[in-house]
Amino acid sequence: MRHLLSTADLSHTQALSILDTAEEMAAVSTREVKKLPTLRGRTVVNLFFEDSTRTRISFEAAAKRLSADVMNFSAKGSSVSKGESLKDTVQTLEAIGADAIVMRHWASGAAAQLAASDWTDCAVINAGDGTHEHPTQALLDALTLRRGFSAAQGQDPRGTDLTGMRVLIVGDILHSRVARSNIWLLRTLGADVGLVAPATLLPVGVEKWPVSVFYSLDEALGSGPDAGPDAIMMLRVQAERMGGAYFPTAAEYTRRWGLTDERLARLQAHRGALGQTPMILHPGPMNRGVEISAAAADSPMNQVLDQVSHGVSVRMAVLHLLLSGSERNTA
């Protein structure tokens, strides 16, 4: 694995390798000194052309815990605002000594273009490209799912996948790079994936994807205590990417597709295919009162803070696997 660009590129073995390595990295967070010397002397650049809180800080924390040097680059206030090209920006950073470039870009496919070019020899990690993919978010979601259900069953999560798990992804699928990365990764790991959204927020051709599609959240939740999902992932409505009206009003969206207090009560009564209370996930930031109620956001079923914590472990694992050994030079 030379780069991490898309979860669709990951084999079952590679995905498990990252998750199992993340489990080892998570143990570092419990130590008094939260540092490993793995990447001492290496330099990681966070190259962000879009605003970010969780992802950028998470990658910075991950690199520093592996003893790497970190440079944070924001397009705002840089020469990009003066018209500098991506090629010239990247080559400047490599000349400074970058070994890995973690890139978030507004254009879908930007990370893949960089990785395929002759502009740099750095490892490239896609931290979100337009509406295309966000692979490390999907990996941390998978780690959260695996750890939550393994802990409830008293099992060691290492070496296991998500076979038999039912996961619903609800909301703005059309504009969500998180949804796309999760679909490919969760399916690779053996989970059954359902998408729930208004027809206007589903991509063209979604019926060809390896998922079930629902237009009603109530239908997707099922009617019996064992009929519902094992996990439900609520997505933010990405108004900044919308050029038109995709649903009548925010209140109507909440009524039909939001995780309201009433639907939360239904989830609490469910036990899912794996016999556990369903988990609630959200990539953040949450729009309380729109896609998720305050009660659902604050419920112990909500794993959002665990997701953030697991994000550091996953990104440590990715940086370690890309930069520290033989995997750096393999396809």
UniProtKB/TrEMBL annotation:
Keywords: Pyrimidine biosynthesis, Transferase. Pfam families: OTCace (PF00185), OTCace_N (PF02729). InterPro entries: Asp/Orn_carbamoyltranf_P-bd, Asp/Orn_carbamoylTrfase, Asp/Orn_carbamoylTrfase_sf, Asp_carbamoyltransf, Asp_carbamoyltransf_Asp/Orn-bd. Residues 2-146 form the Aspartate/ornithine carbamoyltransferase carbamoyl-P binding domain. GO terms for cellular component: cytosol. Carbamoyl phosphate binds at R54, T55, R104, H134, Q137, G284, P285. Residues 275-321 form the Aspartate/ornithine carbamoyltransferase Asp/Orn-binding domain. GO terms for molecular function: amino acid binding; aspartate carbamoyltransferase activity. It catalyses: carbamoyl phosphate + L-aspartate = N-carbamoyl-L-aspartate + phosphate + H(+). Its EC number is 2.1.3.2. One of its GO terms (biological process) is 'de novo' pyrimidine nucleobase biosynthetic process. NCBIfam families: asp_carb_tr, PRK00856.1. HAMAP family: Asp_carb_tr (MF_00001). Catalyzes the condensation of carbamoyl phosphate and aspartate to form carbamoyl aspartate and inorganic phosphate, the committed step in the de novo pyrimidine nucleotide biosynthesis pathway. Belongs to the aspartate/ornithine carbamoyltransferase superfamily. ATCase family. Heterododecamer (2C3:3R2) of six catalytic PyrB chains organized as two trimers (C3), and six regulatory PyrI chains organized as three dimers (R2). This is Aspartate carbamoyltransferase. The lineage of its organism: Bacteria, Bacillati, Actinomycetota, Actinomycetes, Micrococcales.
